[in-house]
Design brief:
Elements: E1 4-5, E2 8-9, E3 12-14, H1 15-21, H2 28-32, E4 37-41, H3 48-57, E5 60-62, E6 74-76, E7 79-81, E8 91-94, E9 106-113, E10 117-118, E11 121-125, H4 126-129, H5 135-144, E12 146-153, H6 161-164, H7 170-180, E13 183-186, E14 190-197, E15 200-203, E16 208-211, H8 225-235, E17 242-246, H9 254-267, E18 269-271, E19 278-282, E20 286-290, E21 293-294, E22 298-306
Parallel strand pairs: 1-2, 3-4
Antiparallel strand pairs: 4-19, 5-22, 6-7, 7-22, 8-20, 9-19, 9-22, 10-21, 11-18, 11-20, 12-14, 12-17, 13-14, 15-16
This protein binds fe (ii) ion.
Protein name: Taurine catabolism dioxygenase TauD, TfdA family
Pfam families: TauD
Domain TauD/TfdA-like: 28-301
């Protein structure tokens, strides 16, 4: 396939070029319109303060990361480390906090220390993914949305509810869940959550529909097969940290996961990181992934929204 901007390759800009865009009051939508993501090469971002400052110059502010996928270290200034995740394991395509009613609209990802090998970040434009998916799958997802069942429990794969909701007590978690439209079921040592979300979302300045969900990312079929089998054998379905289905309750199958990942593969661009680089993403439109790496890669992430609400 020939590389096109937004399909297999990303626009790359220098910091000076990006800051030219920063002249207006709300520069990011125009910056991201061509592909849903832009790589700012050699932006000179060496830490959290510099990343937060760049976000500010682009008219963005940091937003909270309630209910993360995995624990991150707080680097200050609204900036977080990469998630606690084995360097040897890939992380497949996802939208950050894509289970929220309104996920963070933007994401700034910066490389503080490049890996020795591997560790590329994949980026896939959900607008380009959508027409590549089987019609029946898209119709069902568009009509019914998707359901996420997430279990929080200490000692299993995943997080305890106390880790996912630090500084929150039971009442605060219940208030958060009510605001997010999440059904809760408390057990003696676990919390079961269930929510329905749209599978397609309108993106960008013109509201173009994009595939934007975590149906595949949170599917039990995305887990390492040996781990999945072990959890189900040892603990039953309650051992699975995540399960997804279509919003009408019909299963999102292993074949569906394969179809979605094949579409992602066809349109993915890959960032080979250098220290100081910053990737600016439309987090609703573009999914991102991570490859295994060696060495001591260090990333910093800022979940962002417009500083002045649109
Ligand atoms: Fe991520």
């Amino acid at each position: 396939m020939t590389d096109q901007i937004g399909v297999n390759s990303l626009p790359e800009l220098s910091l000076a070029e990006v800051l030219t865009h920063a002249g207006g009051p709300d520069p990011v939508p125009a910056l991201l319109e061509p592909a849903g993501a832009v790589l700012v090469r050699d932006a000179g971002v060496a830490g959290a303060p510099a990343l937060a400052a760049l976000a500010g110059r682009l008219g963005l502010r940091a937003v909270d990361q309630t209910e993360p996928f995995a624990a991150r270290r707080d680097l200050g200034d609204g900036v977080w480390s990469q998630p606690a995740w084995p360097a040897t394991a890939p992380m497949c395509m996802h939208h950050e906090l894509g289970w929220q009613r309104e996920p963070p609209p933007y994401l700034l990802v910066s490389c503080l220390r490049a890996p020795a090998t591997g560790g590329r970040t994949g980026v896939a434009d959900g607008r380009a993914v959508l027409p590549l998916l089987p019609d029946a799958l898209v119709r069902r997802a568009a009509r019914h949305g998707w359901i996420l069942v997430r279990r929080y429990a200490a000692g299993l794969i995943g997080m305890s509810w106390q880790e996912a909701f630090p500084d929150m007590d039971v009442a605060a978690v219940e208030a958060y869940a009510a605001g997010e439209g999440i059904d809760l079921s408390w057990g003696p040592d676990h919390l079961l959550t269930r929510r329905t979300r749209p599978a397609l979302r309108r993106t960008g300045q013109d509201g173009v529909l994009a595939w934007s969900n975590l149906l595949a990312f949170c599917s039990e079929w995305t887990m390492d097969p040996a781990v999945r089998t072990y959890l189900i054998t040892a603990l039953g379905r309650a051992g699975l940290p995540f399960e997804t289905s279509f919003g009408d309750g019909s299963p999102f199958t292993a074949a569906d996961v394969e179809a979605v990942n094949a579409a992602y593969d066809r349109v993915s661009a890959h960032v080979t990181w250098r220290a100081g680089d910053v990737l600016v993403l439309d987090n609703i439109r573009a999914a991102h992934s991570s490859e295994p790496f060696t060495g001591s890669r260090e990333m910093a992430v800022l979940h962002a929204a417009p500083a002045v609400p649109r």
